[in-house]
Known about the structure:
Distance between the termini of chain B: 53 Å
Number of helices of chain B: 10
CATH class of the largest domain in chain A: Alpha Beta
Strand content of chain B: 25-35%
CATH superfamily of the largest domain in chain A: Beta-grasp domain
Oligomer: heterodimer
Strand order of the largest sheet of chain B: 4-5-10-6-7
Distance between the termini of chain A: 51 Å
Order of helices and strands of chain B: EHEHEEEHHHHHHEEEEEEEEEEHH
Helix content of chain B: 25-40%
Order of helices and strands of chain A: EEHEEEHHHH
Radius of gyration of chain A: 16 Å
Number of domains of chain B: 3
Structural class of chain A: alpha+beta
Number of strands of chain A: 5
Shape of chain A: globular
Number of strands of chain B: 15
Largest interface: A-B, 29 and 28 residues
Number of helices of chain A: 5
Shape of chain B: globular
Largest sheet of chain A: 5 strands, mixed
Strand content of chain A: 15-25%
Strand order of the largest sheet of chain A: 2-1-5-3-4
Structural class of chain B: alpha+beta
Largest sheet of chain B: 5 strands, antiparallel
Amino acid sequence: MKTITFKINGSKYSKDVEEHKTLLRFLREDLHLTGTKEGCGAGECGACIVLVNGAPVNSCLMLAVEIDGSEVTTIEGVSKNGQPNSLQKAFEKHHAVQCGFCTPGMILTATDLLKRKPKPTEAEIKEAIEGNFCRCTGYVQIIEAIKDASGQLKSTEE
Amino acid sequence: MAEKFEYYDPKTVKELCKTLDEVGSKTKILAGGTDLIVEMRAGIKKPAGVIDVKKIKELKGIDFDAKKGLRIGSCVTCNELGRNPVIEKKYSILAECAESIASYALRNRATIAGNLCNASPCADMAPGLLVLGALITIVSSSGEKTIKLSDFFTGVKKTVLQPNEFVKEIIIPAEKANSKCKYMKQKRIKGHDLSMVSVAMAVKDKITVAIGSAYITPVVLPEFAKSTKVEKIIEAALSVVKPITDIRSSKEYRLHIIGVYIKRLYEQLVK
């Protein structure tokens, strides 16, 4: 066991964690933040992506002990006052969610993209989400939602 | 992960040397973890402990000195290299290699030295570093030595590194700055994939070519004079490589693409 101190979604924690536990399992089993999903467990699918110090990482390939002193954002931390943020709203509006399994990882990847590149091109959006698999939508609606959230779509009816 | 293990997090190179002397033979060094943790989760590697080197300041940073050249600390990640202005200006091929690896999130963790130490024949950093004549600094409690990257790989997933040694940094000689160079990687899909075959070429006063995924290690060919005909370079390349047929490609296709890529690179960089 090792004691680690970290912030998740703005709240500070100090917890004991087993050395061999991945960040993904720590989030889901110890902190009960089950919005983060496990898909492949090998860094291929992106369902487990969270932000560590603002940067997207695959939490299935990170040890929980490695977040000592860091700040983590999971899907539970992106809404504001219980209301979905603009990206979440855009995903809903464009039907970018079907089964929903990839959505937490997609939203966090897109959050980072829009921070780095507020007006991404379609090619930049595709490159950013190349590590996030979606097996329902065919990606088109997801790309549209990210474009819309960045203010690059002409307004359509709500 | 099913198997339990110890976690070590030395804060200095000196502490790391001591830890390696004590437990190096039964542990693995953890940098980005994008290869190691995959293999540990799959049960392919079962170390008694991991040594996390990311808290060691001496292993970080990218520095350029007009005399000494470029220094890449072993904990520099692919994305740090990819967005570094010096790399973009003077050693652009390294950004091309780094940004061809996996996906954006994995590149936030994957390190340049980790890509080399994992020693896969398809390591994307290797061809770019090899054509720039990269050197690699290896440290242990008995001292420091610098060897050519071309002498570092010994086989599939094998290097010269001993259990008590680690990679401190990668050095690119200053005279290789501003070479005309380019990396080409053939993949099955446009997105996140390992290479079927890859070719790097650098042109300054000589032509240098390196190839990935076509031999038990990444390979660099002996330098060619700039007047060399492209057919000669392709012939030399095909006499050195020994690709296999596997899940990603057939041997014949790999041999074909090596020729195609050398020709394309030659047309862009030499002609």
